[in-house]
């Protein structure tokens, strides 16, 4: 059992309301200024309820909120790498979603200043995201779309890296067209077999 599974649950929809309030505050004030008090106030919950459920404090609460927000029922499986990448990165929760980008901004700050959060984020949130991405790429490999020499560890994060570079360093918000151009002009030529 993980630590999250051994903590008492909050009754009914209250837990999701608390997690939603946490994400709202994360987007509004960032990780550093997010407090258990502020979440309790926003969610109209007692601090005792929050600490009883998330005894690990802010780290445990934010990680659970991110995990709940990132759960997607199914990975895209369109039959083509291009369309799977477009569906994963341009759909709800993808890189064209303002809320996702806002949360990611707070996460970048948090992982650079809070080692406990960085460890928990990489273990509990990022690993699942990487596993999903790996599935998309392994399906493409099984279909024969990829070159034999493609290093998945290098190519998998390239799309997100390019888009996030444009967001954080160049100040250019991502849209579906930009993501599609990155897929078509950089990712696919680097990874796939030539026709």
Automatic annotation (TrEMBL):
Entry keyword Transcription regulation: yes
Identification of the protein by name: TetR/AcrR family transcriptional regulator
Keyword set includes Ribonucleoprotein: no
DNA-binding region: 35-54
InterPro entries in UniProt: Homeodomain-like_sf, HTH-type_TetR-like_transc_reg, HTH_TetR, Tet_transcr_reg_TetR-rel_C_sf, TetR_C
PANTHER family tied to this protein: HTH-TYPE TRANSCRIPTIONAL REGULATOR RUTR, TETR-FAMILY TRANSCRIPTIONAL REGULATOR
PROSITE patterns xrefs: HTH_TETR_2
Classification via Pfam families: TetR_C_11, TetR_N
Keywords annotated in UniProt: DNA-binding, Transcription, Transcription regulation
Gene3D superfamilies in the cross-refs: Homeodomain-like, Tetracycline Repressor, domain 2
TM helices/strands, residue ranges: none
SUPFAM superfamilies the UniProt entry points to: Homeodomain-like (SSF46689), Tetracyclin repressor-like, C-terminal domain (SSF48498)
Domain HTH tetR-type, residue spans: 12-72
Lineage top rank: taxon: Bacteria
Organism: Nocardioides kribbensis
